[in-house]
Amino acid sequence: MITFNISQKILELLLLLVTLFFPSVVMSQARSLPYVTPPRWSPDGSKVAVTINNTVEVWDATTEQVVHVLRGHTDFVASVAWSPDNSMLATASSDQTVKLWSATDGTLLHILSGHNDSVTAVTWSPDGSQVVSSGLESEPSLFVWDPITGDLLFTHSGGTIVDMAFSPDGQRLALSSSLVFSIIDGESLAPIVQSPRVECCANQMYSIAWSPDGNTLATGSINGLVTLWDASTAQMLMQFMTNRYYQPDSRDVDNLALSWVRDVAFTPDGSTVLSVSGDGTVREWQTATGILIQETHIAPLFRAVWSPYSGRLAVWEPTAQKAADLSNGQVFDPNTGEFTIVVPAPSRERLQAIAEACIPPTAVEQALTASIEADQLTDFVAQVEALPEDAIAPACAADLIAVAEALQNQ
Q: 25, 177, 227, 361: least CB-packed within 10 angstroms?
């Protein structure tokens, strides 16, 4: 019996993955396979979209209150994506549709119909001119839409995708299919390169992120691995263990809900990579050397996602009792939880790195000292808040203020 509400098609996909990749543990793992739809930050860092079964709750990141609830899908919502200008959201569902919504008031704008099976992933091109969705269809499975008219522009084959992300320049699209990922042309969707297929079940990749310069990809797996890949050749560069539940073979993991890498991200300058696992472990490594820089722990969680400048984590965490059940390997319902924003392991180095990545040099001279000391943080926050509106990206300002205030409260 599956105790949380997901659609039959999504369940079939997950059980297929279990059957193919976990043949020795189908019966024991299928009842508690810890798949949950990742939350998504708005590009300006002000809101977070969290999926609850067939609906999507849009939370204000400052007040931590729900501002909109997107209702209209008739089955499980598997993926959510914000338009680059923060004006719209796209939601993909096992009801075989993609829906486009106004981010201002939650109004339904378009229903994108064309898939004939469950839709598993959706994303926007960096310029906002196209929406790309992926479904369970065998051929074709990638659909490209015009978000203004709602028209289907063209289709392409792509396989079953569990996560996808455009490169920062929009020229390439990375697609993760669990045991393999591919990089395709961002405009034509023609194949460019594909990673070697991973032998089951060493590295099932369910999250993917680009480095800021587009040269490296990071993937997070269900057995507790982060892998860095050369984005030109799709060859592995290095791997990091993210938590104590890691096992070389996912079939040997005692509790996938805790080992699962819920999100992976690069810091704004690309010098380090961050992960957050289901058990609440947060780790950071140097991308050049693989050296572990820091490790910290927050509460066990169902879902988490790094903010645009990697200063904050949006977390959907269980209640205290559910957290105990989660840690003990019990079957859980990820749709009953609590939303919160956390700043794990704030540091002056993180604050400085974010500032240097997104504040223009002239503003840096005015807003920052050579080193950000504790007794200067109040002035620093005031100076960031006083910067001209077009001098700094809103998401950057939000992360700077959050990290500075967390440092003050230490």
A: 361
